[in-house]
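User: tokens in, sequence out, please.
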């Protein structure tokens, strides 16, 4: 690889034409609906394993997440216009992040939250499912970055984008449709077709509070967007984006994203777009520090396990 290519990174390997993007997005959208229908008919391990109770006291399923991950990876694999390295990186990112996120969805207790909670537990000799997920998604980011190629600096930055994107998008999965709206806006800017198509196809299920991404879906979608950013942006822009992701992730440890959205009229309008009215007395959720979020109550694996 030439010195110029190492400086620029692997950005030439990702972008495809409008026809190819439309084909990949349509394929992923159809695959997402088909996968969601198939999983809903026969949920692995039984329906109870995937069921949670939301802030209204109504049941919803986590099967949206695996359906989106499978469709996004499949759409990227068969859609035209992508280089082999980009396909491999997308497959590794989507599959790895979904697997580790799904493990935390199904086996996690919810007693520890955020980097502070999981790393604090690890310092006292307790290995939480969240800590396993953090380590696994970090490794997933590194593998994806190595598949994209580039020099050591590019690999380091790209690994951070993939792992950081996976974690950050999961922090938005606290209200119906919120994480998908963030992903759709980000994916449109990055022109990443397959994850966009899958996300759009499943958005009605999320907004209708019949399903949610969970860690499997949010981590996978965020990781795929990270690959798109890593493969299509210049190094200075990637560095700026990585700094922004790091800053937002650190802020989430002490600031409620929902509180900020509620105080900002434009953001609140976007957040409520397509959603049912908010109940008068919300109950705590699982990600943000007190006052917590009402995205889902009773989300622990202990409550969901058969």
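Assistant: Sequence out:
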């Amino acid at each position: 690889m030439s010195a110029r290519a190492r400086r620029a990174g692997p950005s030439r390997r990702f972008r495809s034409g409008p026809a190819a993007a439309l084909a990949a997005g349509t394929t992923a959208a159809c695959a997402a609906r088909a996968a969601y229908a198939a999983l809903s008919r026969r949920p692995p391990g039984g329906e109870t394993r995937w069921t949670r109770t939301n802030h209204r006291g109504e049941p919803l399923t986590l099967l949206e997440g695996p359906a989106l991950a499978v469709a996004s990876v499949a759409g990227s694999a068969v859609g035209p216009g992508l280089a082999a390295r980009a396909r491999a990186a997308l497959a590794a990112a989507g599959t790895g992040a979904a697997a580790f996120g799904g493990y935390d969805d199904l086996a996690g207790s919810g007693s520890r939250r955020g980097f502070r909670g999981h790393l604090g537990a690890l310092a006292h000799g307790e290995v939480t499912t969240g800590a396993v997920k953090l380590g696994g998604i970090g490794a997933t980011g590194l593998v994806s970055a190595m598949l994209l190629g580039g020099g050591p600096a590019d690999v380091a930055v790209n690994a951070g984008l993939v792992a950081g994107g996976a974690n950050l998008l999961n922090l938005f999965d606290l209200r119906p449709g919120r994480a998908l709206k963030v992903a759709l806006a980000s994916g449109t800017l990055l022109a990443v077709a397959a994850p966009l198509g899958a996300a759009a196809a499943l958005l009605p299920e999320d907004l209708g509070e019949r399903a949610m991404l969970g860690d499997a879906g949010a981590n996978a979608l965020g990781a795929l967007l990270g690959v798109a950013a890593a493969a299509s942006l210049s190094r200075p822009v990637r560095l700026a984006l990585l700094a922004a992701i790091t800053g937002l992730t650190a802020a989430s440890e002490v600031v409620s994203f929902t509180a900020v959205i509620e105080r900002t009229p434009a953001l609140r309008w976007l957040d409520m777009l397509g959603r049912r009215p908010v109940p008068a007395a919300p109950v705590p959720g699982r990600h943000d520090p007190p006052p917590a979020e009402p995205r889902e109550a009773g989300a622990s694996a202990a409550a969901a396990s058969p």
